[in-house]
Amino acid sequence: MAFWFEQALNGVSFGMLLFLLSAGLSLVTGLMGIVNMAHGSYFLWGGYIGLTVVALTQNFALAIAAAAIGTAASGAVMQRFFLHRFYKQDLAQVLMTFGFLLIFADHALVRYGGNFHLIAPPSFLERSVQFGDIIYPSYRLFLVVIGLLVAVGMWVFQEKTRMGAIIRAGVDDEEMLRGLGINVPLVFTLVFALGAGLAGAAGVLGGPFVGVGPGIDLQVLLLGFVVLIVGGLGSLKGAFVGSLVVGLLDNFGKALFPELALFTIFAPMAIILAIKPTGLFGKA
Amino acid sequence: MKQRHGHGLLRLTMGITAALITAWSVGCTSAPTASPTAAPAKPTEAAKPAAAPATSAPAAKPAEPAPAAKTAAGAPIKIGVMHSTSGPFVFEGVGGNEGVKLYWDAENNQVAGRPVQFIFEDTEGKPDVALTKVRKLAEQDQVHAVIGPIGSNESLAIRDYIHGNRLPLVLGYSIARELTQEKGSPYLFRAAGSLQMNSAGGWYAAKKLNYKRAIMVSTDYAAGRDAAALFKQYYEEAGGKVSSEIYIPLGATDVAPYITQLRSEIANADVVAMPLLIGATASQFVKAYTEFGLKSQVPMFTLGVSVDEASTLPPAGDAGLGIVNFNDWSLTLDLPENKKFVEAFRAKYQKDPGQHHLYGYLEGRLIGEALKAVNGNAEDKDKFAEALGKVQFESPRGPFKLDEKHQAIVTIFIRRVDRVGNQLLNVVIDQIPNVDQFWKAPQ
Q1: Contacting residues for B62 by C-beta, under 8 A, at least 6 apart
Q2: Residue A169 to residues A22, A93, A182, A187: CA-CA distances in angstroms?
Q3: CB A255 to CB B257 under 8 A?
Q4: Chain A residues within 8 A of B254 when measuring between CB atoms
Q5: What's CA B374's distance to the chain center, in Å?
Q6: Of the N and C termini of chain A, which has fewer Cβ atoms inside 10 Å?
Q7: What gap in Å lies between CA A182 and CA B279, rounded to an integer?
Q8: A110, A25, A229, A228: which is closest to B86 by C-alpha?
Q9: CB of B94 within 8 Å of any CB in chain A?
Q10: SS3 B333
Q11: Is B224 touching A (CB cutoff 8 A)?
């Protein structure tokens, strides 16, 4: 019993991290049709920026803010001055983001070297809490709380604000949005920046247990794509539910079928593609 | 009018560019590529234009001088170094190059009156690239020996080529057992301990540490499973019982499911043994083991690579304190040769050496000592290979010696992570001498 509860906690806490990573990816892909191969690089660079800030200031919150701002700015520049030139040319945009992936990865290697790092969380979260027989790191519980707060915040943003309505409209029908006189290129840049900033923040939040190091960008990118396929494109609800599904199934899969550990990520993806190819909440 | 002008300019630009590329590639084929640590991508880029002029040597064995040919006095000896400076083994590769240079720069890059030139190549950790690079080094650069790739998969990929071409290959990182057993060769040498460390480790856990039951946690790939099988064999022969085995795949982003799995089984264990848990996963696992409260219940006993001061220990931090582990070297090892090595490394690089630097140093030194023994005659491949097999010297980890299959015989040091001043260091608390790849446990 305790075993299932603990695995569920693992799955949910990891799922929250996946949500922060893939919320932006889902919106960007749904709104702009760009499959951003460099999305994992925001996670990676967010982690490295956070690592540097924590080393200098021991301030975790500042690290998250710095990483989010840094990656958001980088995302805005990338979209506005590079990707937007290939508007409506999906393949060209994907190839370009792949180029950025390689550049970001190589630059990180030159700047930070090949070592792996785990970011020190704030000291009040370094302890573990006990329920019954289980001792559980409080940081992962904190991550669940943060994930829920961000999810609620983004829901409010999407449902209750004008900007949110614009984004929802853009995902549904971009031509009509232009017709209404909305500055759609600006919306694109802002959404791209938002997605990148969230991924950068996720990189710092994942820093204490997923870590920062070469190869993390590709690992999380893969997870992000799986969430995208399971949850559907352009939907925050899809990103949230998809992340939880992937997190839980992956956890239980690894624990119950260790020989198939490499496939547990792809099992939910394969099932969804067979039953509902647009994802759980994707636009049809 | 405008169009013709445009075309002329274009042709001029292309002509100049072509001339520059040709001049650069000619320059590149004559000079060895520079230090790889500064610019990891450069060796690959320099190699490409050099490959364009078609090689006249056929793909088969290169022509060799008769064994009695005299050593060209002053002609350079060329050594290829295939440490990857990108990909999964970038850490070991870059460190390995630093280790090689530590030895050879101190020797002024010469031996027996001949200069020694190094050609560094990046294999990217990929077996196919490794094969391409070794061919290039052998056929284009005409190297006399190769310091091997890092990954076992890469080394296995080039083994047949070096054996067929009688090109001496010195390895320091590839731990696959076969390389000095079924796939051994008179031309293949391994300067560092292989999986044999787990034979002594398994025996020690049962006989000396008296752990009756163990759960093994290892990495889920060929070497990780081989290491676990070896540990289990010696552990159970010495009276222990492995109650369960957990294998974590390479690049697992989150280790929590495995920790929780371990918790459900830990009542059946006196120790959690890690025969080969490497890299990021090792740091994550050691840290989570404490965070999830398991460390206070059951101790860990691991291969030293999981709590290495230069790589896996710093991210885990205090979670590593007190962990007993086994390895073929330690930074704090109190031997005169080790003190010299550590001082020299600190002076040259302003940081402490890790074991991945030591292995590069041993690779470089093995070649250096063999070249001294044959008086610089690197052209006589068989004599050179014979000398490589016979090299003995006092190394930073104790006496250096290879067995008949060219596998290094090492002393296994039992260490514990202690706080020394404000650092976490592995302090040596015991040792098992003369552990070779066919080690028999004492009765």
Answers
A1: B138, B139, B142, B165
A2: 20, 22, 11, 11
A3: yes
A4: 10, 14, 209-210, 251
A5: 25
A6: C
A7: 50
A8: A110
A9: yes
A10: coil
A11: no
Q: Which of residues 31-70 of B touch A (CB under 8 A)?
A: 40-41
Three-state SS sequence of A130-193? EECCEEEEHHHHHHHHHHHHHHHHHHHHHHHCHHHHHHHHHHHCHHHHHHCCCCHHHHHHHHHH
Q: Does pTM surpass 0.90?
A: no
Q: From the candidates B86, B254, B265, B357, which should be mutated to test the interface with A, based on the most A CB atoms within 10 A?
A: B254
Q: Is B304 on the interface with A (CB under 8 A)?
A: no
CA distance A115 to chain B (A): 7
Eight-state DSSP code of residue B70: P
CA distance B284 to chain A (A): 6
Query: DSSP secondary structure string, chain A?
Result: -HHHHHHHHHHHHHHHHHHHHHHHHHHHHHHH----TTHHHHHHHHHHHHHHHHHHH--HHHHHHHHHHHHHHHHHHHHHHTGGGGTT-HHHHHHHHHHHHHHHHHHHHHHH-S--B-PPPPGGGSSEEEETTEEEEHHHHHHHHHHHHHHHHHHHHHHHSHHHHHHHHHHH-HHHHHHTT--HHHHHHHHHHHHHHHHHHHHHHHTTTT-B-TTHHHHHHHHHHHHHHHH-TT-HHHHHHHHHHHHHHHHHHHHH-GGGTTTTTHHHHHHHHHH-TT-SS---
Segment B391-408, tens digit of pLDDT: 999 999 999 999 999 999
| The token pair that represents A277 in the structure block | 């190819």
Q: Span A95-101, mean pLDDT?
A: 95
B3 by Cβ neighbours in 10 Å (0-12 / 13-18 / 19+) ranks as exposed
Q: Could you tell me how many CB contacts below 8 A there are between chain A and chain B?
A: 103
Pair type for strands B271-274 and B300-303: parallel
Nearest by CB: A210 against B86, B254, B279: B254
Contact A6 B283 (CB under 8 A): no
Chain A nearest CA to B250, separation (Å): 9
- CA B71/CA B41 separation, integer angstroms: 35
Q: How many CB atoms are located within 10 Å of the residue A155 CB?
A: 14
Residue of A nearest to B291 (CA): A137
Task: Give the ipTM of the model, two decimals please.
Answer: 0.92
Cβ neighbour number for residue A77 with a 10 Å cutoff: 14
Closest residue in A to B41 (Cα–Cα): A106
Residue with tokens 């490394």: B345
Which residue of chain B comes nearest to A249, CA vs CA? B257
pLDDT digits (tens, 9 = 90+) for B24-49: 444 333 333 333 333 333 333 333 33
Residue B82 tokens read as: 């295939």
Residues 6+ apart with CB under 8 A from B235: B202, B203, B205, B206, B214, B242, B273
Residues of chain B with pLDDT under 50: 1-6, 24-72
Q: Six-digit token pair at A268?
A: 């939910």
Residue A186: how many CA atoms within 13 Å on its side-chain side? 6
Residues A269-279: tens digit of each pLDDT: 888 889 988 88
